[in-house]
């Protein structure tokens, strides 16, 4: 299946999964086949552009590359136009208005009481291990409280990082990485998309086309960052880099 391919690019690799690019194809290797199953089914149901599934031979899923470029990267200025960010917001709204998928969410869709317990435990570890200052953690834990309230679920992507949204000019050409899709809070998707790019939130919301509770967006920024810092460090990423998760937490001060 890989005949003629002479270059392999490691897109991301850690202990849970890896993604490789081979020509115009992505190979996603994941030991959790339930997660892969969610991704395949979500892409089939989502009313937005998604990658074509080429083949699946567990633990590998092969998908075609989507045209265009990622909307941006965390910690770097985005070169995408305001219209492209608005188009991303419109695509997210279309997803959120679609019928709910038949499975629960894996991201913000999991039980809020479990998420709250996980957040409190993580905050304790961040302070006890000297990863972050106590006042920074405490302030963001208070901000995060607004996210821990039940809201009507929508069909959410669940991991809508800006690197997962591809655009060509002012149009969305594809949304990738659906393994966390399910039922959950619409504002979790919007917060994930704009994490570290607060200056683009108004453009996204212009495309989304409806009023949202900004306090909840801010709460998800804090919550996602608090939960992510230690995991990122342990898996070889740098949440302390300029514009990344720790700067997001500092902005709430």
Automatic annotation (TrEMBL):
Domain Aminoglycoside phosphotransferase residues, every copy: 46-210
UniProt-listed InterPro entries: AGP_Transferase, Aminoglycoside_PTrfase, Kinase-like_dom_sf
GO MF assignments: transferase activity
Biological classification of the source: Bacteria, Bacillati, Actinomycetota, Actinomycetes, Kitasatosporales
The keyword Transferase is assigned to this record: yes
Originating organism: Streptomyces cacaoi
Cross-referenced PANTHER family: AMINOGLYCOSIDE PHOSPHOTRANSFERASE DOMAIN-CONTAINING PROTEIN-RELATED (PTHR21310:SF40), AMINOGLYCOSIDE PHOSPHOTRANSFERASE-RELATED-RELATED (PTHR21310)
Stated name of the protein: Aminoglycoside phosphotransferase
This protein's UniProt keywords: Transferase
Cited Gene3D superfamilies: 3.90.1200.10
Pfam families: APH (PF01636)
Transferase keyword on record: yes
SUPFAM superfamilies: Protein kinase-like (PK-like)
């Amino acid at each position: 299946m890989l005949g003629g391919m002479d270059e392999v690019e490691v897109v991301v690799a850690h202990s849970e999964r890896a993604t490789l690019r081979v020509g115009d194809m992505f190979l996603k290797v994941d030991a959790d086949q339930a997660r892969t199953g969610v991704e395949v089914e979500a892409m089939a149901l989502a009313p937005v552009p998604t990658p074509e599934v080429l083949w699946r031979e567990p633990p590998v899923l092969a998908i075609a590359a989507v045209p265009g470029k990622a909307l941006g990267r965390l910690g770097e200025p985005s070169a995408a136009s305001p219209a492209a960010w608005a188009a991303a917001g419109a695509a997210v709204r279309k997803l959120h208005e679609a019928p709910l998928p038949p499975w629960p969410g894996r991201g913000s869709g999991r039980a809020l009481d479990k998420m709250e317990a996980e957040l409190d435990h993580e905050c304790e570890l961040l302070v006890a291990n000297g990863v972050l200052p106590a006042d920074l953690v405490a302030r963001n834990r208070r901000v995060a409280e607004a996210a821990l309230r039940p809201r009507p679920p929508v069909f959410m992507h669940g991991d809508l990082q800006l690197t997962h949204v591809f655009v060509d000019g002012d149009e969305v050409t594809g949304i990738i990485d659906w393994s966390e899709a399910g039922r959950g809070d619409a504002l979790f998707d919007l917060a994930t998309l704009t994490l570290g790019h607060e200056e683009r939130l108004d453009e996204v919301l212009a495309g989304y086309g409806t009023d949202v509770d900004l306090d909840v967006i801010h709460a998800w920024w804090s919550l996602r960052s608090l939960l992510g810092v230690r995991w990122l460090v342990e898996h070889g990423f740098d949440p302390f880099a300029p514009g990344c998760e720790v700067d997001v937490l500092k902005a709430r001060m």
